[in-house]
Amino acid sequence: MQQIINGIGNLPGILKQLGCKRLFLVVDSSYPFLNIKDAIEALPGRQAMFSDFTPNPLYEQVCKGIELFKASECDSILAVGGGSAMDVAKCIKLAVLAEEGNAAIIPPLVSQRLPIDGASIPFIAIPTTAGTGSESTHNAVMYYEGAKQTVTNDGILPDCALLEPSVLKTLPLYQKKCTMMDALCQGIESWWSVNSTEESREYSRKAVELVMANWRKYIFDNDSDAAAQIMLAANYGGRAINLAQTTAAHAMSYKITSLYKLPHGHAVAVCLPEIWDWMLTHPADCSDPRGRAWLDGIFAQISHAMGAPGVKGAIAIFREMMSAMEMQNPAAGSDRADELEILSSSVNPVRLKNNPLAIDKEAAQALYSIIVKA
Ligand SMILES: NC(=O)c1ccc[n+]([C@@H]2O[C@H](COP(=O)([O-])OP(=O)(O)OC[C@H]3O[C@@H](n4cnc5c(N)ncnc54)[C@H](O)[C@@H]3O)[C@@H](O)[C@H]2O)c1
Q: I need a labelling partner for 252 at 20 to 30 A (CA). Which of 47, 168, 182, 267 fits?
């Protein structure tokens, strides 16, 4: 069971408890500017560091990290950064421990839960964005030959997620918006996912309520208490998707990110209200075995958590948030029809299976034609 602890001051104790002697740090380019850098570098024991990767990391970059880990003789991993850094660390851990080596994180093995002894490399994650919740999931996202891969293995769930909200002080405003909307979408999508459980829905509810109660103060007032609540919301969102997975808004976002260079959270957030609206107007197509009445009940619960009297109102609130933060939909380039075709052919069918309503290629194309402005 994962430990979730608060405060950077608890890091030395947790490292001791997990028996970490030689730490392999996986950090992103924000690390030199983080207020927790000195506390990390003052930790006892030798450290090696890997930071040679970009947001939305590539397989080739992860391979460099795997080689460095092997050469470092480190016995444990500390990831400090956004979802990208935490996911690189997870891929390194899996490739180092799996018999299949680097092949474990690419097709065809990527979708198989290979048996690894996760406990043999203790792993601590400190998120520096409040969005992905990757510190509490057993998934990692990485790009191989231009296609997004989701690496899934119980052995890559961090042993400890350490939440230190003061790190968010250096996060640029636009990144705060994007990552927070990722957290909100994860809360909403995991709630209506066909895989939701009583436990996951409780995490979803907490994620949505915390974002709705704190987003204005976090975004517009830079309030530290609100930042702590949004970091908690993101962690609940992570715990929710770890059980229920994400759905159509995430599935439809990935090509938007690569085609229009929209950050992950922004790309998901432009998809979600249109998909929700579409699901309201297609009442007959429910693919959740619990039925349409169940789904309508879930939509009502989400709307209530968002402070709206009904579902239409909740969708309007979501759009108003986007508008208040000046987060716009992408605009098509020179060949819109071609782009809509590329987008609708790209959708990940596995994630679409988690969606409570079936979305075929034609429906996806209709949705993209609303999402992508002419
Ligand atoms: N594994 C999962 O469960 C999961 C879930 C959702 C998303 N993801 C993946 O996570 C990635 C997105 O992660 P993200 O949204 O956290 O962004 P990110 O990790 O890509 O970071 C975005 C930018 O913010 C900078 N940054 C991070 N923290 C900072 C701080 N405190 N101060 C200043 N700059 C800072 C980074 O250096 C980077 O330039 C995507 O690849 C997405 O697919 C993974």
A: 168
**Which tens digits make up the pLDDT trace of 86-138?**
999 999 999 999 999 999 999 999 988 999 999 999 999 999 999 999 999 99
Kindly compute the dihedral angle of the four CA atoms of residues 236, 195, 246, 332, in this order, to the nearest 10 degrees: -150
Q: Are strands 139-144 and 76-81 parallel, antiparallel or unpaired?
A: unpaired
Q: Which domains does the chain have, with CATH numbers?
A: 3-167 (3.40.50.1970), 172-371 (1.20.1090.10)
CA of 50 to the centre of ligand 1 (A): 16
What's the half-sphere exposure (Cβ side, CA atoms, 13 Å) at 192?
33
Instruction: For residue 141, report the distance from its CA to the centre of ligand 1, in Å.
Output: 11
From ligand 1's centre to the CA of 133, what distance in Å? Answer: 10
Which residues are registered as beta bridge partners of 161? 4, 125
> 350-370 pLDDT, tens per residue?
678 999 999 988 899 999 999
The percent of residues in the chain predicted with pLDDT above 70, rounded, is: 99
Helix (H) or strand (E) holding 321: helix 311-324
Choose one of 59, 84, 190, 262 to mutate for the ligand 1 pocket test, by most ligand atoms within 8 angstroms of C-beta: 84
